[in-house]
Every structure is written in C-alpha cells, then in structure tokens.
Write a structure and sequence with these properties.
The chain is of the alpha/beta class. Among the domains are: 314 residues, Up-down Bundle (ABC transporter transmembrane region fold); 72 residues, P-loop containing nucleotide triphosphate hydrolases (Rossmann fold, 3-Layer(aba) Sandwich), CATH 3.40.50.300. Helix content is 64%, strand content 9%. The protein is built from 23 helices and 12 strands. Helix 8 packs antiparallel against helix 11 and helix 16 packs across helix 18. The N terminus and C terminus are likely disordered.
Length: 617
C-alpha cells in the first residue's frame, strides 16, 4: 500500500457528512429505547436537582443556625443536606448504569448492521478498499463510539441538566449577581466554537490515520511470507514506521487541540469567581447581601463551570466519536448489491448449458475488459480458458455467478436459455461452485470447512465428499480427524491439502456448473495426480469452466478458448489449435518446450509451467 492518509480518503470518494447530520443520526439510534431513555432522564433530573438544592441549604445554614448559634437547627439542616446529596449520588449511579446499557445495545446493533451490510455489498466495493481499513471501522471506530456512549454521554447529559438547574437557582437567588456571573458566557461560547472547528478536522484526520495503519498492518501480516522471501522486511518496517508516525502525529495534533480547551475553561472559571467575590463582597459590605447567599453563589459558580470543564474532558471523546460515526455511516450508506426485482423467478434445475452472447464488460465502464465475447459450453462439457496475463480470463468466470453484473445492452449470459439477469442470484449461485487458485479456509474444524459447501450437510455426506477427492486419507491422519480445528486460512495444512478440502466443499455443493480458477496451479505434481483422478469424478456430468494452468487440463478439455485483449481470438480443441499455429501454439511451445513427448509427459504427469498464470482479470 502506497497511499497516504489523504490519498486514501480521496480515493474512497466517501466525503464525510456534516458533523451535525452525523450527530443527529447517532441520536436517532436511540429511538428504539425511549422507555429506557425516559428512566435515564428522570435519574439525571433527580441528580441535577439535588446538586442545585445543596448550596441553598448551605446558605440557609450560614445565615440561620450558624449565625444564631442554633445547634439543633444546624443538625437538621446538615441531615437534610446529607439526604439531598445521597439522593443525588444514587441518581448519578443509576443514570450511568442506564445510559451505559443503552449505549451497549446501540453498539451491538451497529456491529450487526455493519456485518450485514458487508455481506450484501457488491464485490466491486471491496476491490477498491483496503480490508484493514474496513476492519478498523468495525473494531476501532465502534470501540471509540463505545467509550463515548458508555461513559462520555452520561457525563455530558448529566452536566447539561446540572447546568440548567444551577442557572435557574442562581437567577432565583439573586438576579444581579447571576447576570454578573453570566458575563463570561459569550467568551466561553466563542472559545468553544474556535476549538470545535479545529478539532473536527484534526479528529477526522486521526481516524483516517488509524484506519490506514490497520490496513497496512493487515496487509503486511498477510504477506509476511513474501516479505521474508524477497528480503523486504526492513523496507516494510521502515514503511510501517512512517505510517505509524503519521498516525501518531495526527492523534497528537488532535489531542493537543482539545487539551488546550480545559485550561481555557479554568481561566474563565477563575475570572467568574473573581467577579462574584468582588461584586458580591461589595454587596455584603453595603448590607445588600448576606454572607450565606454569597457563599452559596460561590458554590454555584464553581458548579456552573464544573459541568463545562467536565464537558471539555468529554469533548475529545465526542469529536473522535463523531469522526468514527462518520466512517461507520459511510459503510452503512454504501449501496448494497441490487436486490432482485419483485417477482423475479428462481432458476430451477438445469442441465448446465452456458452461453455468452456478445458480452462487453468493464469494472470501469470507460475501460472495457471484455469486448464482444461470445461462446457456448454445452451441458457436461469442459471448457478451458487460456491466455496471457490480464487478458480477461477470470472476468469471464466472475460474470457467470453474477459477482459482477453485465449492463443492459452490453450482451447477455444465459444458462439453459435463461438470461441470468432475469433469475434470482441465490438460485443461480446454487447451481454454481467455484474453486479458486488460493483456497480460503475458515477458522473451525475440517468438517466445518467442507460443510460450508452446503448448509445442514450430515457427517456422512461430508465424509463422502472428502472421499470423492481423496481428501479422506490425509484427514484421517490428522490428530482429531474431521474434528481437527484449523487456524485462520487453514494454518498447518499444505497448499495441496487446503485445495483438496476446497474441492471436497465443491463436491458437497453438488453444482451443475463448476468453475476452476487455476485451481491446481499451486499444487505439487504428486498431489495433482491425486486431484486429477478425483477431477474425472468431479467433472462428470457437470459443465466446467476451467482457467487452465496444467497441461493435462488443457489437453483434455472439450473446447479451449484463447483470450487476448478481452476478446476470444482462437477456439477449438488442443490438436486443432496446435495445427493453427497461432497464439495458443506459441504459448504452448514457450511454456512446455522442456517437456518430453506429449504422451509420455501426460502419462508421467510431469511438471508443467502454467498457461495464462496471470492476474485475476
């Protein structure tokens, strides 16, 4: 990955929504929890009322029992003050628990919706986004929201209602002294606005930087074998250091901006306190005010700025959370794979005839990968596709199960005469199984991975599928047989063993159409002998589209399509294409020139260098 943080953000084309809109959407997440929120607000109001009532009792105690020497009255007032603050403490504890529970339920819903959206997004969405950045949105960004919703939001709401209670109490107690205290508010609002604007930009950059580091980390860990093989470890370490340093600088800048907010509020709080002491002290000196009321006002001023200071501490979380919410909603707002129109019929049982009729397709409509491609594969035929790197071989097979959609007017793909755009995707994909060059195994047992081919498959069916491709022998030798747990990606198994399990998965799915995307290219010769024996049984009665790599697959195909520059330039069986002495013959001679005579080579299944070992597209 060579993208910078800024380039990554620009390339995604996902410009952030207005922060106010993101905040409104996050608030909208709370709508299903109206009853719980009502209880939380009740507890918040209770806590704020207790906080506002306390200084009044202090003022009464100073001006009454303390000034008069009334010990009994002072005891009653102290008991009342204890009860008030106890009620406030219980209310605060309750609101924290209630808001925390609501926050966790909202986050669980967001994670579910994110995962659901990932499952329904078209493959083109993932083609242009780093996997690590997407993972960062589900983990780091949701975790940032977790911290705010579980802790910061409670403090923010409590501070807001406390502020309202304090303002009301100050206005009722002494209007003039209250107005003197409030002269600081315009300066406070201006200061907050300045910090808010700068913090929005800083935290957006910080969240993108975090996603960039996660994407880099995921890619480098996945490619550790290649890094060591090509002596790239030191280069990769240095590149990661640069990205990590950019992430550090972005977060330091963000924290630096918000950390200056609290001291600014401290200065304003001190200034307000000085104004109250000066003006209130003068009133006491003139006999216009009591000492108890001035003491209560000083407590209120401190309480007035305490919620603001607390909010300043939460401010960092709030800005970071809005940036995270922005990134989360970019995923949730991404257009899912277009749903089948209502009433679209399902594709029933098919024989497996495939027809491409003048198909033109490009991942970018302005740059076609396939141009006017037409061919047919009869039911039960094996069709091999060969060609140089980037010719469009994998694009052809990706269009059959509608991983990508052929636009209207750009040709038609039919299965048993049915336009595949006119049947449901689910029913179409039920008829198709794909085995890739790099098999993907999930964390779980061997049986789980084979059973992935058909939901609800019995153990007997799983074992039968493994036997069909001769995987049963090596599975039986594993420590726990079919119940042996596999790590991510099938760690602990050889390339050939992982591929055999993917073949077994395809057998279990029992498709009418089988796509082999260079499925034997990374398997050693001895393992290929095992697979070739199984392929005869696997391909029998099925229509197979094979991106060819090994000699035996090419020679045994009923039809060979030679693709170059997105067009089919030659077609026929092996003998006819060799006699034509065109591109296929050139590729064959260049890549198989070291083999012995064809019959001997086929019998021995000697090592072969691939035809068309190129890119996925």
């Amino acid at each position: 990955m060579s993208q910078t943080i800024e380039a990554l953000a620009a390339a995604s084309g996902e410009r952030a929504e207005d922060r106010g809109a993101v905040a409104r959407r996050l608030v909208g997440e709370l709508r299903p929890f109206r009853r719980e929120i009502g209880l939380a607000f009740g507890l918040i109001v209770l806590s704020a009322s207790a906080q506002a009532l306390g200084p009044l009792l202090v003022a009464r105690a100073i001006d009454g029992p303390i000034a008069d020497g009334d010990r009994g009255g002072l005891a009653w007032l102290m008991a009342a003050l204890f009860v008030v603050y106890l009620v406030g403490t219980v209310g605060t504890r309750g609101q924290i628990a209630q808001v925390g529970e609501i926050g966790q339920r909202v986050l669980a819903s967001l994670r579910d919706r994110l995962f659901d959206r990932f499952q329904h997004l078209p493959l083109a969405f993932f083609d242009r986004r780093p996997v690590g950045d997407l993972i960062s949105r589900v983990t780091n960004d949701v975790d940032t929201l977790n911290q705010f919703l579980s802790q910061g939001l409670t403090q923010l709401l409590g501070s807001f209602f406390s502020l309202i209670g304090i303002v009301i109490a100050m206005l009722l107690l002494d209007l003039g002294l209250a107005l003197v205290s409030f002269t600081i508010i315009p300066v406070m609002l201006l200061t907050t606005s300045v910090f808010a604007r700068r913090a929005r930009v800083a935290f957006r950059t910080a969240r993108e930087a975090t996603g960039d580091v996660t994407a880099e980390l995921q890619e480098e860990i996945s490619g550790i074998r290649e890094a060591q093989a090509f002596n790239r470890t030191e280069v990769n370490i240095e590149r990661f250091r640069r990205r990590n340093a950019a992430n550090r600088d972005a977060n330091v800048q963000a924290v630096g901006i918000t950390s200056a907010f609290a001291p600014a509020m401290d200065v304003l709080s001190t200034l307000a306190t000085a104004l109250v002491i000066g003006y209130g002290g003068y009133q006491v000196y003139q006999g216009e005010q009591t000492v108890g009321l001035l003491a209560a006002f000083l407590i209120y001023v401190q309480q007035f700025f305490r919620p603001i200071q607390l909010a300043s501490q939460v401010y960092t979380q709030a800005q970071s959370s809005l940036a995270s919410g922005e990134r989360i909603y970019q995923i949730l707002d991404a257009a899912p794979e277009a749903a089948d129109p209502p009433g679209t019929p399902a594709l029933g049982a098919v024989r497996g005839r495939i027809e491409f009729d003048r198909v033109t397709f490009g991942y970018d409509p302005a740059r076609p990968v396939l141009r006017d491609v037409s061919f047919s594969a009869e039911a039960g035929e094996t069709v091999a596709i060969v060609g140089p790197t980037g010719a469009g071989k994998t694009t052809i097979v990706n269009l059959i199960p509608r991983f990508y959609e052929v636009p209207e007017g750009q040709g038609t793909i039919r299965v048993d005469g049915h336009d595949i755009r006119r049947v449901t995707r689910q029913s179409l994909r039920r008829q198709v199984a794909t085995v890739l060059q790099e098999p993907f195994l999930f964390s779980g047992t061997v049986a789980d991975n084979i059973g992935y081919g058909r939901e609800g498959a019995t153990r007997e069916e799983i074992v039968a599928a493994a036997r069909a491709v001769d995987a049963d022998r090596f599975v039986a030798a594993l420590p726990e047989g079919y119940d042996t747990p596999l790590g991510e990606g099938g760690g602990g198994l050889s390339e050939g063993q992982r591929q055999l399990l993917s073949f077994a998965r395809a057998v279990l799915a029992d498709p009418r159409i089988l796509i082999l995307d260079e499925a034997t290219s990374r398997i050693d010769t001895r393992t290929e002998q095992t697979i070739q024996a199984a392929l005869g049984r696997l391909l029998a009665g099925r229509t197979s589209i094979v991106i060819a790599h090994r000699l035996s697959t090419v020679r045994n195909a009923d039809q060979i399509l030679v693709v170059d520059g997105g067009r089919i330039v030659e077609r026929g069986d092996h003998g006819a294409l060799m006699a034509r002495d065109g591109l296929y013959a050139t590729l064959y001679r260049r890549q198989f020139r070291d083999l012995r005579a064809p019959s001997t080579a086929d019998d021995a299944n000697a090592e072969a260098v691939g035809v068309g070992t190129g890119a996925v597209r």
